[in-house]
Amino acid sequence: YNIIVRPHPKSLNANKNILKILSKKNFFIDTKPDRKLGELFKVSDLALCDYGETIFSAIYLEKPVILLNTNKYTEFVKQQINNLSLDISLRKEIINLNLEDANNEIKIFFSKASDIEYVNLIKKLKNNYFGDKKNYSTTEEIRNFILHLLN
Questions:
Q1: Helix (H, G, I), strand (E, B) or coil at 19
Q2: Which of 38, 42, 70, 43 is nearest to 53 (CA)?
Q3: Which residues touch 136 (CB under 8 Å, ≥6 apart)?
Q4: Which residues sit opposite 47 in a β-bridge?
Q5: pLDDT digits (tens, 9 = 90+) for 82-125
Q6: pLDDT tens string 42-69
Q7: Residues forming a β-bridge with 98
Q8: What letters, b where the CB count within 10 A reaches 16 and e where it falls short, cover 74-87?
Q9: What are the residue ranges of helices labelled H in 1-151?
Q10: What is each CA distance from 13 to 16, 49, 108, in whole angstroms?
């Protein structure tokens, strides 16, 4: 596998050792601040995401996704749960992996992510979150789509 890692800029600022750790693992590290994530997704066969916007970018671009779970006892995850975050509810549908289990099960997860049923699930999630219309041309169409999601 060719693995491209793009740490969140806040992670890089908080922990300067991240780059050293990733370099020792022989990962290609993308630290270009103005690179559009869509460029990386277009050349990817699989996206590994933790939380936030990248999950939805991968779904929008119909890339198979494996979610990496942070320890459920962290303050961050507790807040996500309390706020009914979509990041948490997606974990009920999308393959997700606890890092402490990674050594034993990662090959199983990777093979499941390329399965046609899983690819179809991602397409279904795209329609659920973004609608099945290719382009929204008016503000009213966008408004109606969002209101429909909220009902």
A1: helix
A2: 38
A3: 142, 145
A4: 65
A5: 988 888 889 999 988 886 665 656 667 777 877 889 999 999 99
A6: 888 888 888 888 898 889 888 998 888 8
A7: 69
A8: eeebeebeeeeeeb
A9: 9-14, 18-24, 37-42, 53-60, 75-82, 86-90, 102-113, 116-130, 139-150
A10: 6, 19, 33
Q: Which two tokens stand for residue 142?
A: 């966008």
Amino acid at 18: I
Helix (H, G, I), strand (E, B) or coil at 56: helix
Spatial contact of 39 and 106, defined as CB atoms under 8 Å apart:
no
Burial of 51 (0-12, 13-18, 19+ CB in 10 A): buried
